[in-house]
Structures are given as C-alpha cells and as structure tokens.
UniProtKB/TrEMBL annotation:
Domain of life from the UniProt record: Bacteria
Family from the record: Belongs to the pseudomonas-type ThrB family.
PANTHER family: AMINOGLYCOSIDE PHOSPHOTRANSFERASE DOMAIN-CONTAINING PROTEIN (PTHR21064:SF6), AMINOGLYCOSIDE PHOSPHOTRANSFERASE DOMAIN-CONTAINING PROTEIN-RELATED (PTHR21064)
Annotated Aminoglycoside phosphotransferase domain residues: 54-282
An example Gene Ontology biological process: threonine biosynthetic process
Name used for this protein in its record: Aminoglycoside phosphotransferase domain-containing protein
One GO MF term attached to the UniProt entry: homoserine kinase activity
Organism per entry: Tumebacillus flagellatus
InterPro entries named among the record's database cross-references: Aminoglycoside_PTrfase, Kinase-like_dom_sf, Pseudomonas-type_ThrB
Amino acid sequence: MMMTLAGMVRFFAATGEAGPDAEMVPQLLERWGYDAGTIRFVRASQNVILKFQRDGQDFILRLSHESERSLQEIEAELAFLNFLAQRDVPVHQPVASKAGREIETCDSSLGVFHAVVFTYLHGEHPELEDLDETGFARWGAAMGRLHQVASQYEAECERLPRDADTDQAKTGRRKTCFEQLALAKAALPAEETAALQEVTRLETWLRSLPRTDDNFGMIHFDFELDNLIRREDGELQILDFDGCSCNWFAADIAFALRDLYVAGAEADEEDPRIRAFLQGYRTKKTLLPADAAHLPMFLRFHQLLMFAKLLDVVRLESGPEWAMNLKARLEGKLQALRECFSQRGASK
C-alpha cells in the first residue's frame, strides 16, 4: 500500500530546501541523536522512510502521517515487534528516543506525523528471479516461524488497551480482515459495481471460514521479498510490520506470493515454487490442506483491498512529471483489476 500521490507531492514540496518544513526531519532526529550529513531519503510509500547514522551506526527513520496510521495502531505494531524479538524472531526493532519513547510525534504544515526509529538490518534483499526451490523453502520457513510465534500472541495482546465496541481486542487495536474489508467497501464509489459485487462475495466467504487459535492471528500482511533481508549466513530477517493485522495465517502466504500471479490469475498449487514455499512453511508451522486451498480466495481479498486503496492514491489532478507518470501506471493496474472483478461476476 502507499500514501496518496497528492500527499507525496505535498511532502516533498514542504520538506524541500525552500519548504516550510525543511528542518522537520533534522529536528525530529535530534530527539534520538544523529551524525550530521548522514540523512538519506530511501522511499515513500505508506510512510516516508529515511536512513541515517548515529555514532557511525545505521538506523532507519519512519514517518507516518496521522491520516495513515493512528498512534494506537503504531503502539500495537511495536508491541508485536517487541514480542517477536523477545522470542528470537529476527526482526528490526524500535529504538527509544533520548526521552525513552519509541514513538515521537511532531506537528508540521502537513499535519501530525508519528516518527519511529528502527535498527538497520544489514544484508541483501533476495530477488524473486534468483530464488531456486531451496530459496523458496527458506522463505516459507521464515514465515512459518513467524506464524508459529504469532499464534502465541493472544495472551500478550490481552494486556494492551482495547476498544470495547470493536473487534480489535485480540490484536491490540490492529485492524482485522473484516474491518479492512468494511473500510474498502466504504471507499468504493457506487459506479464501481464489479468491485462492490466482489466485496459481497468476499464477505460471504470470510464469514464461512472456521477460526481457530492455530489458523488465525496476527500476520505481517506484506511478507514479500522487499521486506526481507538475507544475512551472509542465509538467515532471513524481517522488516516493515506497518501493515500487520489480524487474519488467517494462510492469507499471509497468498499476499507474500502474489507476484507469482498476474492480476486475476488463480494460484497453481502445482507450481514448484509454491510447493517449495509451503514445504518450508510446514517445517515450522502446521498448514492443513483445507487452509492451503483458500490461497486463491485470499489473493482476491488482497486485490480488492489494493483496488480500494489505489482509487484514493491516484486522486491527483496535476503535479510533477514523476507523479503523473506514476498515476498513469497505477491507473493501468486499476483497470486490470476492474476487468478481473467483472470476469468473476460473469462466471457466477
């Protein structure tokens, strides 16, 4: 997922040399301490990511606008990260500021941003085209290990503050798949009839699935290779838990492997890459054949959420060339997904 194109344009304009918030990032990093001249922009997606050094060591700064993530959601994310780290899951970890806070908040001309500094994971990102079956098995085993530990997280979440009128108690106010689908439905305009029909199909299907402590819990939600760092010894380290949510563990598998499919294609469980991934997963965590059979539907769930988000992302009338070019590419993805939804409706 990503922030809106309009939001990206405003951020770069505001934090540029002549912008009203040109000193926002340096002033924020003073709360942790940093080496002058080491701040580097990495990327902007759902959040803005920067790299910097302190005492010669690398760190990551993540900026999240309050419209994208609430303070409570970030607190729950970091609680989950700390839980995993305490159980030797190789994840990046939040770094406390000088004031002892894991999250620092600042006002700007663009509104409120929540800032978190993370440890920097050294290594390399695996590339999909370079993975052999052993590589896919290791990828699956890394997810299986994560889910095995995450399945123990319910008791810990009970200690987090909760909203009595929501379905978020188990996840410490991280969104559930049901809430995500409801938000996507609310974001769809009436003219997107094929997408709205897909929502109805997915709602009915999700409500029919059995939920147990072994198949449902906190998932990463974006366990793709871009969010894994391979160390020299081959161990895969995990970063970017910004989208973690409560869902079936099988959903995480479908989301992770989504790049193996073109838009609208169904999962092919005979694909040797998928088979190797699942074999690796099962060395760490149980995955029943009935749960694995749901991968195609969870892929459709992810596509629907992506569609609803992209509709918001591309709302930009004019902007710099890079933004308009990106808008054109994203609108192409939207049209491809519209066609997928229409084909599914016609096949019913």
